[in-house]
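For this section, I looked closely at a protein sequence along with its fold in token form, which I now present.
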Amino acid sequence: MFDKVLVANRGEIAVRVMRACEELGIDTVAVYSDADRNAGHVRYADEAYNIGPARAADSYLDHEAVIDAAEKAGADAIHPGYGFLAENAEFAGKVEETEGVTWVGPTSHSMEQLGEKTKARKVMQEADVPIVPGTTDPVTEPEDVHAFGEEYGYPIAIKAEGGGGGRGMKVVRTEDEVEEQLESAQREGEAYFDNDSVYLERYLEQPRHIEVQIIADQQGNVRHLGERDCSLQRRHQKVIEEGPSPALSDALREEIGEAARQGVKASDYVNAGTVEFLVEDGEFFFLEVNTRIQVEHCVTEELTGIDIVKWQLRVADGDELDFAQEDVELEGHAMEFRINAENAAQDFAPARSGSLDVYDPPGGVGVRLDDSLRQGDDLVTDYDSMIAKLIVHGSDREECLARGRRALAEYDIEGVVTIIPFHRVMLEDEKFVAGEHTTKYLDEELDDEKVADAQAKWGSAESSGDDEEVVEREFTVEVNGKRFEVNLEQRGEIAAVPANGNSGGQKPKPAGGSSGGSETVVDAEGETVSAEMQGTILDVKVAEGDEIESGDVVCVLEAMKMENDVVASRGGTVTQIAVSEGDSVDMGDVLVVVD
């Protein structure tokens, strides 16, 4: 078994992997950005290395920085968790080429074959797995979309090759939307996955989203561990997952599981993965393969008693699976609730700040918490909004729902807004409780007034952020990038001195200051156009000197997995551009100045 594993991730999944390592007697290495200096996964690891600024592209997505940290630490394996580099075949290939370091996951070849959606569709089609009607080669021109629409009709889903979680997916409902949505999908694919290739599928109107967990070893054994139902989604982003699915008959469940196992076996896949399907009117269609551990893997672990992360490590080390397919049994029912730092009553707007003034998670029989934060921690808003996962298990779905209600009511968080009130509403929702919801339910049928009432009744507000006098503090010192902890005492309050030497007013804050880079100074005259929410700049539509009208789009801002047009409230001349493509911005940051 490995001696030391570097976990190339952050937050709860990094801690989840480290816990598995600890039980196997493996030392752990964390990597962290400047924004995560005091993060929970850094505290948990045996050692930790700084790999760059807050911006993910300069830290968690930096191939060389991660591999360099592994070599400095003497790690003999890298586990990617999920997200970031977990499905990046190029990075996996670099790790495979690094002497003395093992990649904990499928081979880079498998990731290229199954991680890219059009290639995966070809593999599954050859293995006689039903696929949604669509293209098996990338499309580049609007004419391709029009031709597909003429053959299969509308609506059409345009999907990024490397996409997932709703990013890089656009729905074309009429011919008039083709060019705009194609460009948008390509742009998101390039921005988030460094791949602007897209493909087309027939868009199913009311499907269930069913996924099958698989694990495969290097000796050719492939097992499926049952299915999970991930149909409760908002904008294609899962919020509650459960297993087994209340929508499948035993016969259809067996058919889907075997299709997933055979499809993966035909591709010579190794390690953990998930085969996703859409189910509608008793038919199932292959959707995609996620070549990594999933956020919701915990549901399967509770149902089967199989530690999937440990098996990832064992398989990577060459161990053979020690259980047969017939040994896999699903016991009871399990659900996972994603605890996101978002306000469901405000269109799931991500929290802009906050500190865990109170953090008291639930416990008891059948309750599991995967998290990394602790009371007193500040919320880091540079990355994904999920701060924890609550998993409950019961003897059947009815008991599972009751246990979920109890656990969510016990979950006490103050100082950071979360979607716990939304989850409590859903466990009283007639359609969800009956198991009759589809992937469109939240977007099309959710009663927003109920969510607003729940947020007012049970929600937590963001902490004010006022600093209290600190007597004892823990600092970190970095030597050659390695993190060391130092305990110091501070007596009395340190006065804050303005950087400009006076206490006068300041111009509005430009974007880009939170990522550790140099700030853009807003010095042009005119009215500022500011970000209305935290997000990432996908495109800047204007240039300095342009004449614009009121209502013109000046930037495209991605937030909450949606593209949002930022428009000018008045016409005039653009006198300054304060952002660039790829910049992270906070609410209130200046984007453009118009005079």
